[in-house]
Amino acid sequence: MPRFRADRVAHRFDRTPGLPPAGLEDPTSDETAERTLKAEGSAAPPTPDHMKKWRKDYTPGKQCSHPGTSDDLDYKRLEVYGRSEPVGVKVHDVLNVAPKSYLLEKAVQKKEQIYLSHKREPLGKQYSRGHTLPSELVENGFGRPTPQDISGDPTKRMLHPEERIPPEYETALYRKSHSNFAPGEQRHRGYQWVDSKGSIDPGDYRFGGIVTERDVDGMAKAMNPAKDDRIPRDPIVVDKLLEDFREVHGEQLGQTKNLGFGQTGVDPKTHVFGLPSQRGPEWGTAECMGNYTAEEQEPDKDLGRSLKPGWRNIAPPDRMFGVPSIRKDIAAPQMKSVADHQNYGDESGAETLLYPPRFTDEGIAQEDFLYARNKAEIADIFQSAGFELTEDEFAQIYDKAMTLDPNGAVSVESFRRTLNSM
């Protein structure tokens, strides 16, 4: 064991000089529990001044302004908004007019009598033109009165037709055939109510029992009929068939409903209800798959292919099946029937029908550009098309176009190609 030396006593030193010491602190310092729990610099930074107008302030009692008017400081230098008007006639002076006397009103009316507008357009009356109506018009009014017999004038009947009230027998007929009841009408089935005293009118008779004395403990007697003395206590012997019917078709309170299977006195743990799915041994999936050998379970040899020689689906890559829509292998008949829809190569194909040539609307086919034509026809065609060629230029182009054909024939197409090349 090493010996302790007094000259080697360890001196204390602070290993974390940045942290304040623990323990009690001077109450005058800012050493609180909140500051102790929160680290230095953990407080949220303040909102910049240019972003304060976009933040919502939930301080109670503080008035919030719209961000668009937060920078509007005109209200600080102005007392009110709006435009100042020069002082003139006040509103209360215009509204609070001094009442006029009767003499002043009569004097004003007398002065107004000289004006024509006052005579023709008096206040509160219709425009007066000075006409005098006959007395009969004033008494009877304008227009012709409608005669009482309107059979000869169907205009009023067309606007206001007479409502036909069907008789009672017709209403009863529609009520029976179409169930056409009036709104709120009670449906009567025509039953004949009869009791010991005679016939009963359902409109006057009140059904139900007659209470002759005050009923005490009515709810208790309704729930427990044994408390009601008016119900006889003697046993009533009824037919067992009736009780069995009530037990099967009724629902007993607190008991399961009897479905009439007759399974009574059976052990629910060992007894299985219902009928078996099969009464005898039947074939299933295991029997169908287990009774065949492995070779018999293989797919058929002709599955997807033909085993007959000459009938296999192997054809040369350049072979095309079917009959072409344009039969160029068959010579076209001299007289083609209108019922013959076959194209023998002398008609247009599907491509020409979908994409017709340029000059099809003018009745010009592509073969017209390939026919051999004489020099005069070629000159006339290109001159009509707008080509202004001199005789020397036309002769030079025509001679060069003759070299394109072995026979020296010139067509519109060959002349056009020669013209474009030159």
Your description of this structure?
The protein is mainly alpha-helical. It has a domain at 372-422. Helix content is 26%, strand content 2%. The protein has helices at residues 33-37, 74-77, 91-95, 102-112, 116-120, 135-140, 155-159, 168-177, 218-223, 240-249, 285-290, 350-354, 375-384, 391-402, 412-421; strands at residues 193-195, 198-200, 372-373, 410-411. The strands form two sheets. It has a two-stranded antiparallel sheet with strand order 1-2. The protein has a two-stranded antiparallel ribbon with strand order 3-4. A hairpin with a 2-residue loop joins strand 1 and strand 2. Helix 14 packs across helix 15 (412-421). The longest helix has 12 residues, at 391-402. The mean pLDDT is 78.
Please describe the topology of this protein.
Blueprint lengths: L32 H5 L36 H4 L13 H5 L6 H11 L3 H5 L14 H6 L14 H5 L8 H10 L15 E3 L2 E3 L17 H6 L16 H10 L35 H6 L59 H5 L17 E2 L1 H10 L6 H12 L7 E2 H10 L1
Helix pairs in contact: 14-15
Short description:
The protein has 422 residues and is mainly alpha-helical. Helices cover 26% and strands 2% of the residues.
Give the tags.
about 425 residues, two-stranded antiparallel sheet, extended
